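Exercise: predict the fold of this chain.
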Amino acid sequence: MISADFRKNSPTPPQILIVDDEPTQQLFTRRIVEKEGYRVIEASNGQECLDICQKMLPDIVLLDAMMPVMDGFTCCAQLQAHPLTQNIPVLMLTALDDKKSVNQAFEVGATDYVTKPIHWPVLLQRVRRLIQQSQMYRQLIESQEKTQKLLLNILPESIALRLQAEVTEHLVIADHFPNVSVLFADMVGFTKLASEIPPIELIVKLNSIFSEFDKLTEKYGLEKIKTIGDGYMVASGLPILRDDHADAIVQMALAMQQAMARLNAQTKEFHSLRIGIHSGPVVAGVIGTKKFSYDLWGDTVNTASRMEQYSFPGCIQVTEDTYKQLSNKHLFAERGMIDVKGKGKMKTYLL
C-alpha cells in the first residue's frame, strides 16, 4: 500500500501543473503546494497545459475553468482524448459552483472539482488523495507490464494471448502441427566439466552460451522450447506456420556452431556442440496449472533427440526427412544407414 506521505516513499516529489490565467491566484496556489514539498509547473491557459503535458507528464493538473485561448473544460476533454495524457488526474478549480458547470466538468473527464474561493486544507487533502491514487495506478500498470514481459519470455506471444483470453479452469492448449523441424543441441563433455568447476562458474558459462543462442532464435524467427541441463531445444514452424522451417533451422544450427567458435576464441577454451535435427508432425501446447511451459510431444521430438545423441562433436546431423525439405542443400555428406535406438535403420546426413 502506498503511504500518503510521498516525501518518505518517493525518490522525487510529485509534480503539479497549475493552470490559471490569474497571476495572483496562481502565485497563492504555487506557494501553498510548494510548502507541502510538491514540484510546480505553471501554465496560463489550456493550450499551454496541453503543450506541457505532451512533453512531461505531471502527477496532477490543477485546472482553472475560465481562461482565454482555451478554457479548462475544452482542455480537460482534450487531455482525456489523448492516450498519453488520459490518465493524468485533473482537479478543476473554478468560481463556477452551479450544478451545470459541475456536471460539465465531470463529463469532460475531471477527476475532482473545487470551487473558489479555495479552502486550502480541503484542496491539499484532495491533491494528496489524487496523487496517491495516481501513484497506485502507475504501479499497477508497471506491474502488469512486467508480468506481460515475463509471460512472453516463457511462452510464445500467440499462446500467452490465448491463455490470458481463455480463463477457464484447467485450460489445456494443444495444437497439432503436421510438419515442423526440431533441433537438439548438447554441450560435449559438459557433464565432466560440471564436476571440475564451481557451480556459479558453470552457470555463468552456460548462461553466456545460451544467451547467444537465444539471440539467434529471435534472428531466425524460431521458437526456443527449453533448456535441459546443458542441452538446448528449438523448433521451427510453430506456433506460426512457415514453409521454410527446415531451411531456417539449419541456418540456426550453423549459426550456433559459429557462435560456439567465437565464444571459444574469446575464452581460450574449447567446448563443442552436437546438433541433431528432424522434421515431421508434433503436438505442441501448455499443460498443468503451475510452472507451465510450452512443450512438444511426438515421435518427431524423439527422433530429433536421437539425431543429436548419434551425432559427432562439432557436427550437425539431419534425417532424410529434413534433408529432402531443404531448398538449399548446403554441403552435406551422406552418412548412410545408421542403427538408431528405438527407430531401427535410418538414413542420415552430416552438414
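Check your answer against the key: Confidence is low (pLDDT under 50) at residues 1-8.
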